[in-house]
Amino acid sequence: MQAKFKSAKLTINLKGYLVGNGATNWDFDVSPSFPTIARDFNLIPTSLYHNYTHSNCKVWFNNFKPMEGPPYCGDLWEQINKLTENLNWYDLYRPVYNAGGLTDQSEERIGKTVIGGVEREYKRGYTVAEYTPWLKDFMKFDKPQPVMGDAVSDYFNQADVRLALHIEDVIQPWEMCNGNANWTYAYSREASQWIYPILKAAGIRQIFYSGDTDGAVGLAGSR
């Protein structure tokens, strides 16, 4: 990888990139940092948080490594998740009912737009289960889920918006995530962090940012 980026044959005109709420290192992201996030948002009692941290409990995302700490850490982890299971994980301040930009799944999920004189379809928004299927081992998807981003999908597929953004007609309608991809995930401790210094050494600018109300890959892990 490093040799490829240093090669004179590299033709990709990449100037920089953004990483938003990136899972960069499994030593910190998602499960290890979630108790801190829950405590910071007053979602769990301080006594539960102190019991968990003072016992040196640590649970890893997707059971990447065995749980650390005494056997009762599992019970404490279960209490933390039970107290927070009905929240909107992508915005801990946003309600999960049909308000605040969230649409019920029973409403129309397929939108239509005209591109180059041809009617095209797109998926309106995504649920948590659709957007991050890898959370299935971390969260329960047994209840109806609100749809997030349906208004954003409609906006970016408007003809005037595509024109303003100079999107050519050969480009497909915009969706929050490509549902046609066969996503597979491989886990290493560094997650995506390993590539950051390689890209930096190649002179590629980078911005790493996090939403401060995101519970899925929260600010505590990013810090």
What does this structure look like?
The radius of gyration is 20 Å and the shape is globular. It has 9 helices and 6 strands; from the N terminus they run αβαααβββαβαααβα. The chain folds into 2 domains: about 110 residues, no CATH class; about 90 residues, no CATH class. The chain starts with a helix and ends with a helix. Helix 3 runs antiparallel to helix 4. Helix content is about 25%, strand content about 10%. The model has no long low-confidence stretch (mean pLDDT about 85). Strand 3 and strand 4 form a beta hairpin. The protein has about 220 residues and is α+β, with helices and mostly antiparallel strands. The strands form 3 sheets. It has a two-stranded parallel ribbon. Strands 2-5 form a two-stranded antiparallel sheet.
Percent range for β-strand residues: 5-15%
Structural class: alpha+beta
What Rg is obtained from the alpha carbons, in whole angstroms?
20 Å
Spatial shape: globular
Number of strands: 6
- How many domains comprise the coordinates? 2
Order of helices and strands: HEHHHEEEHEHHHEH
The CA-CA distance between the termini, in Å, is 27 Å
List its traits.
9 helices, 6 strands, 223 residues, single chain, two-stranded parallel sheet, two-stranded antiparallel sheet, globular, alpha+beta
Strand-helix topology:
Blueprint: H1 2-6, E1 16-20, H2 34-40, H3 46-54, H4 73-84, E2 102-103, E3 110-115, E4 118-123, H5 128-131, E5 147-148, H6 150-156, H7 159-164, H8 195-201, E6 205-209, H9 219-222
Parallel strand pairs: 1-6
Antiparallel strand pairs: 2-5, 3-4
Helix pairs in contact: 3-4
